[in-house]
Amino acid sequence: MRWRRPSWAGLLLAYGILAYVCYLLSDALKALPPEHQKMSPSLVWLLMIPGLSVIWNFFVFIQVPQSYGSYLRSLGRPTDASLGTLGIVYAILSVLTLIPHVGGCTGLAAFVVLIIFLVKLGELKRRAQELGGASGTPGFGMYGT
């Protein structure tokens, strides 16, 4: 079987989705006070660099949940380790997508895990903003409403 080059439309769609994911991750970090951010929100955008993203996934998808865990613990609130687990699983599945003949299956699994991760992150962001968050103003939802 011959290796096919991806189409421009497919690449554009993939980078559009990746840019939206980076925006959501960066925005979620900005919702926390700076002392609880384990990484700068702007560093999330390094995921857009081809090749680097495979390694950088491990940093981003581990440090974002750690940031929320730190914030919630500082308030004496219970934390849920499942977001960190989902982040690690996503990063590992992303690496496995590079393996020929299994990349398609692991890519689909990685996409599903990413969606679950982002939904849980959105819930945590809402909860953090209700507790005060970075701005100290409760009531801002996932999409700024």
Label the structural class: mainly alpha
Mean pLDDT: 87
- Poorly predicted runs of 5 or more residues: 136-145
Give the overall silhouette. Answer: elongated
The largest sheet is: none
Total count of strands: 0
Q: Report Rg.
A: 16 Å
Binned, the helix content reads 55-70%
Q: Approximately how much beta-strand content do the residues carry?
A: under 5%
SSE arrangement, N to C: HHHH
List the domain count as a whole number.
Answer: 1
Amino-to-carboxy terminus distance: 50 Å
What's the total helix number?
4
Characterize the structure shown.
This protein has 145 residues and is mainly alpha-helical. The chain has one domain (9-130). The chain contains 4 helices and no strands. Helix 2 (52-74) packs antiparallel against helix 3 and helix 2 packs parallel to helix 4. The chain starts with 7 loop residues before the first helix and ends in a 15-residue tail after the last helix. Residues 136-145 have low confidence and may be disordered.
